[in-house]
Amino acid sequence: MASWVPIVVIIFAVVLVIGPVMWLKPSSRERQLADLRQKAASAGLKVQIQTLPEALGEGTAATYFSQWRNPRRLNTGWGLEVQRMSHEMHFQGPWDWRKRRPAPEAAQPALKELIGALPADVTAVYANDSGLGVQWRERSGDDGLVKIQEALAAQRPVIEEAIRQPSRSEPGEA
Asked: Could you name the domain of life of the organism this protein comes from (predicted)?
């Protein structure tokens, strides 16, 4: 019986060393998210973690930003968020303005095209100093990332010019 005690102690010591190391090892989901975010960064997108829209409850999701080419004089600070239900008073279907602050009228057709091209697990579209961002739950994986990249590449330049405020020297400005 006494010959088993050292073996049990050694096994216990190994478990004490390996256990925390295995606990720190990323899960397959965490590895998949890191891979998606690395692909996005390689494609020129900036990834930030932000809180979900209020209508979707608590939690966070990654927001993929396509940076503005010329960030001067842009009317930013607005966003579109998915609401709990679709309503005719919303901007489009379940999409409505964050804090009731709409984008400039000239950008709205391009925004409708943008949200129509995005994967179903997108929760918001934001325009801020970081660029035009798409908040995404990342459930649609690589296919969703491709859709986001294509949609942002097509619509970000159009939206950027549509939200540009005229300079004081341009005609028509009082």
From this structure: Bacteria
- Residue 111, pLDDT score: 97
Q: How far is CA 11 from CA 14, 20, 71, 129, in A?
A: 5, 15, 60, 55
C-beta neighbour count of 87 within 10 angstroms: 11
User: What domain range includes position 148?
Assistant: 25-162
Distances 146 to 9, 150, 154 between C-alpha atoms, Å = 52, 6, 12
CB 74 within 8 A of CB 164: yes
Q: Number of structural domains, the chain?
A: 1
pLDDT for the residue 16: 82
- Count CB-CB contacts under 10 A for residue 155: 25
Written as one letter, the residue type at 101 is R
User: Is 168 inside a domain boundary?
Assistant: no
Amino acid at 35: D
- Cα gap 132→111, rounded to integer Å: 11
CA-wise closest residue to 125 among 163, 69, 87:
163
